[in-house]
Amino acid sequence: MEEAELPDAYAGAGDERYRVGAWGGGYFKREEGGDLRVFPQGPDGHSARLDDIIDSLNEQGLSDPYLLRFPQILENRQARIREAFEAAIELYDYPQPYRGVYPVKVNHNHIVVSTLARAGRAAHFGLEVGSKAELCLALTIDLSAEALVVCNGFKDRDYLELAAHAASHGRRILVIAENPQEVDDIIGTIKEVGVLMMIGLRARLHSEGAGRWLESSGAKGKFGLSTMEIVEAMEQLDREGLVENLRALHFHIGSQVSDILNLKEAIKEASRLFCSMQQRASGLDILDIGGGLSVDYDGSRSATDWSMNYSLHEYARDVVYIVKSICDESGARSPTIVTESGRALTAHHAAIVVSTLRVVGEHEPGDYARHDTKAVQIADLKETLEGIKHENYREAYHDAEQLLNELILGFKMGYVSMEDRAVGECLHNDICASARRLMRNARKASGVVREDIKDLERKLAPKYVCNFSIFMSAPDSWAVQQLFPVCPLTGFDDARGQAATIGDITCDSDGKLEHFIGQGKSEPFLWLPELEPGQSCLIGMFLVGAYQDVLGDFHNLFGTAAEGVIEVTGEDEFRLIDTDEGSSVESSLAHFGFSPHQMVRAFDRKVDRSRSRESVQDYRGAFLRVLHGNTYLQKP
Ligand code: PLP
Fold this sequence. Notes:
Layout: E1 3-4, H1 14-18, H2 20-23, E2 28-30, E3 36-38, E4 48-49, H3 50-59, E5 66-69, H4 71-91, E6 98-103, H5 110-120, E7 126-129, H6 132-139, E8 148-151, H7 157-168, E9 172-177, H8 180-193, E10 198-202, H9 227-239, E11 246-250, H10 260-280, E12 286-288, H11 312-330, E13 336-339, H12 343-346, E14 350-360, H13 376-387, H14 393-413, H15 418-446, E15 449-450, H16 451-460, E16 463-466, H17 470-473, H18 475-479, E17 486-488, E18 497-503, E19 512-513, E20 526-529, E21 538-541, H19 548-551, E22 562-570, E23 573-580, H20 585-590, H21 596-606, H22 613-628
Parallel strand pairs: 5-22, 6-7, 6-13, 7-8, 8-9, 9-10, 10-11, 11-12, 12-13, 16-18
Antiparallel strand pairs: 1-15, 2-3, 3-4, 5-14, 14-16, 14-21, 17-21, 18-19, 18-20, 22-23
The structure holds pyridoxal-5'-phosphate.
């Protein structure tokens, strides 16, 4: 049997165990003692303890689950990306500027969009939209006159007409044709409204992305024009006298491209295409390379799905260098480089903090002495338990597995009693718990443990039930098995830790976290403090600022979490810029057509008036309290 290192959850303590330094991007760190601090302006800025922030939210009368937002992190991410491109532009003496645009679908929250727009104004930061609703949003945001509004997504006439009118009113609209039909529609709209919008074509590149969203790119991607469609679109624009309005080539090979080689291939292919197109469309001066810049969720700096094998500076240098060298070689004018990074801008700025409610599945030594048992396997299990020791714990574990299987089979066939089965299960659990203890000791001594025994830790890991809904607060962990870093907010005595998993409070068996970050691969449990009955601890889930806010759903009618928008103003000093108590039961119900007003009337009609006045009042009071209250569990 292969010998292997135990999962990370065992190794080290504090930061080494949770690897905050690796995934925190300089925004989160564990201080000595294990408490977590946030540095919203980056590692050199001021910091505050997350636990103190939670205390101040509690003092405002709010309660968990909490979504914490740090707009300063958004500003810092935006500055870091821009500075990386500016440094690359200077390094390679690139003749054109860099322009960032934010794809609002990644997080539509007003505080997110307005912070990025305000902080990016001087650098002409723009927005990317993919629907009519998003276009409306963008048109109300204060951008510089030079900032682009890139119009992507499927478009109908209303969408195009609004874009055209916005262009005529001075907005710098770049409307991207995603397919040949849209080329016709854009030409039709320009003629009808009489406004010359800037036009872009989205290319369906041969080069593919990497990682979880690989399939959104390549020849079978949902969006973009094939090379022949691009040739035909340019001919059509030429015939219509609009080829000079063709200003941009755009591509997007998928989100979270974890391998830089895929990005480099795509940029090379797009740059060649750009140069060929510019020969026939001399106004072409923008290369919009879409999103895809990754976030290192697991801190492994590798090409695995939830990481990236490159740095931000490497990305920017590769983009600028490849575009410049291909343009120079082809004698083309270098384009303004536009990126549509969403995940890399927003992921770090938000964290979820939840409290544990109870621990289920913790090992309790079995109380079986008083039972009179008959099955022969019980005697064997007792003997195994009595004889388990360092030299044989692996064998004892295997024996216990086999004896329990026999007992269950016997129970199913009708010759093992319920009591015998119950005692057998308790004995089996006790043997597993002893084997686990001996295994941990063995690991301390030798550093290795066998694979099959490792499975024990997973089987015995208790579940910490936490006050939140995965489907609302971290839907991608369920939908696409995304790994988000998770760790306790405060340090704890290591000797009082245990390997555990996490469950939410939805009535759905998928509402759980059973994969946690490890060294490049996920681990089946997290190290959490053992809790006394009635005791609770706070657990944070980090880097949830991209996509999670907008994808969350109301499973079981659990609504949005309470929210705190925080600015760190000095060392250990912060202010709450904004707070929100999260969805009430009535607002969650209203999403699904249940008007609170009508519900109260329906309740009043249905209540049995023949009961005593006091009982009706109590019933009505309880109904209204719940209706107006929070959807999550409230502490007594
Ligand atoms: N641009 C387009 C066209 C997209 O579809 C997306 C999302 O997939 C993005 C930009 C944002 O990508 P990311 O969040 O990986 O930066």
